[in-house]
Amino acid sequence: MLVAQWVPGRVECGCDEAGRGCLAGPVVAAAVILPEGFFHPLLNDSKKMSERHRNEVRVYIEQHAVSWAVGMASPEEIDEINILNASFLAMHRAVDALNAQPDHLLVDGNRFKPYKKVPHTCVIKGDGKFAAIAAASVLAKTHRDACMQALHAQYPDYRWAVNMGYPTAAHREAIRRLGSTPHHRKSFTLLPPQLTLPL
User: What pLDDT is attached to residue 149?
Assistant: First the structure.
């Protein structure tokens, strides 16, 4: 059962990201401020929801949230500052884009780079504990999936519409055959050591 609010009356913003473990595509974060008493029976950690339920709940969140926003960090930024810092950057960009000022950030995970002077609390597995973080996980996941599906149209051989950029066998086989794309994270191990990229 998700907790609607940690401290009643406080404007809390849930933050989460999607795509940290991918070989390709941006890391995408969402920031969500929910109204008091917000509830949706299907809302949960996005990883525990079906694609259909995620997309259904996404629409509901976007229609009923006090404020929501999505931020991204590109593969180039990931390569430059590493995936952890890029995740923080994407979260900061999402909070920057909100049209309401939060009193407190509830961040999924165990680490976060402070955002301006807004206090924050890191919550391990927070997407299964707090509604605002769960909502952020749904928006981050669905927006990132939509991004990868759009990129799939340009690079269909990598099957991003199916694997969303994660390191599946088919994705790695396409990298082995065709090489990397501008959307791949060059600082990641794109292929196991026994395989090499084509020259």
Answer: 97
